[in-house]
Amino acid sequence: MAEIDRDKLLDIYTRTMKVNRTDEKFRELLMGGKVAVMYYCVRGQELVSAAAMAALEKDDYVVCTYRGQGEQTAKGIPMEKWWGECLGKATGTCKGKGGTMHITDPETGIMVTTGVVGSGLPIANGLAMASQNNGDGRVTLVSFGDGAANIGGFHEAMNMAQLYKLPVIFLCQNNRYGEHTAYADHTDSPNIAARAAGYGMPGVTVDGNDVHQIYPAVKEAVDRARRGEGPTLVEAMCYRMMGHFFGADFSYMPPEHIAEMKAEDPLPKLRKVMLEHQFTEEQLDAIVADIDAQINAAVEHALAAPLPDVGEIYKDVLEETA
Questions:
Q1: Three-state SS annotation for the chain
Q2: What is the spatial distance between Cα 196 and Cα 149, in angstroms, rounded to a whole number?
Q3: Residues 6 or more apart in contact with residue 183 via CB below 8 angstroms
Q4: d(CA 159, CA 153)
Q5: Rounded to the nearest 10 degrees, what angle do helices 6-31 and 79-86 cross at?
Q6: Which pLDDT score, from 0 to 100, does residue 236 have?
Q7: Angle (nearest 5°) at CA 68 between 238 and 93
Q8: Under 8 Å CB-to-CB from 134, ≥6 apart: which residues?
Q9: Which of 30, 52, 203, 277 has a CA that sits 20 to 30 A from residue 156's CA?
Q10: Is the pTM of this model over 0.85?
Q11: CA distance 60 to 291
């Protein structure tokens, strides 16, 4: 497993807090009635996304789901563009026409955000095959939930990726619930990573709340893919600490599960690691304060930005030729 040096820890911490503070701000805006859009909270899964993005290079590709805020912000989409898209403004990554569930920003490698469960896996294969054919050295990481692991596209994509040794990492963020259905109620196997053996590829299950497990696992998978050794299935066990979407009831979660996920909160665990590596409370707080200032400025910019022109409905649909 790859070691994590002090600089990389700082990088992961900064990305993690960027994801967390963005999530907190979004929920604040929704609860305050300042915006009214669909939003899928990432509270509890911040570290998985941040560590995974820290294992990639800037020009690597990412495919994520509607709960993709973690990947999108941690990969580096400029805040003003990201907030503009979420609020449906012309300044957004897709001119406000994609919204929270369809954010795309090729400049930072966020190639697809899909609202269809599991549909990102075959798309990731296509991107990885293009990189393989072009010899550009890029790898593709596709993030999905445990519920997506039971659709046909999961199996087809895994089989194809291994057959052609595609440079792709399948990252399953197993937050133990497929929408409102507990993992044990939709899957009888103890974990998802074990399925990798059926396709002949490596598979590993790690604690997504532990930076010393999640980052090395993804980094090793990225390095394998870049060396031309094919795909890896990484299953990161984590917790979704909110409902399926903002405002959704989550009373279906038993009390013992809620107690367990609070005890395993990745944020205090990561902060403890940072302190053990001689970062001070003041340094860590300063990072968060700087992130908050950037987010607040980006939100104000997005709130004041114009809506897309009505004529935009006819653009970016078909290729325009001279």
A1: CCCCCHHHHHHHHHHHHHHHHHHHHHHHHHHCCCCCCCCCCCCCCHHHHHHHHHCCCCCCEEEEECCCHHHHHHHCCCHHHHHHHHCCCCCCCCCCCCCCCCCCEHHHCEEEEECCCCCHHHHHHHHHHHHHHHCCCCCEEEEEEHHHHHCHHHHHHHHHHHHCCCCEEEEEEECCEECCEEHHHHCCCCCCHHHHHHHCCCEEEEECCCHHHHHHHHHHHHHHHHCCCCCEEEEEECCCCCCCCCCCCCCCCCHHHHHHHHHCCHHHHHHHHHHHCCCCHHHHHHHHHHHHHHHHHHHHHHHHCCCCCHHHHHCCCCCCCC
A2: 11
A3: 146, 174, 176, 177
A4: 10
A5: 30
A6: 98
A7: 165
A8: none
A9: 52
A10: yes
A11: 24
The one-letter amino acid code at 136 reads D
pLDDT digit string (tens) for 197-256? Answer: 999 999 999 999 999 999 999 999 999 999 999 999 999 999 999 999 999 988 899 999
Round to whole Å and give the CA distance between 266 and 42: 12
Identify the CA nearest to 68 among candidates 121, 174, 145, 139: 145
Among 193, 172, 174, CA closest to 184: 174
Per-residue model confidence (pLDDT) at position 321:
80
Pair 164, 130: CB distance under 8 Å: no
Q: What single-letter amino acid sits at 294?
A: Q
Specify burial of residue 301 (Cβ count, 10 A radius: 0-12, 13-18, 19+): middle
Please give the single-letter amino acid code of residue 258.
I
Q: Which CATH architecture is the domain 6-310 placed in?
A: 3-Layer(aba) Sandwich (3.40)
Residue 255 exposed, middle or buried by CB count within 10 Å (0-12, 13-18, 19+): exposed
Q: b/e per residue, 68-77, with b = 16+ CB within 10 A?
A: bbbbbbbbbb
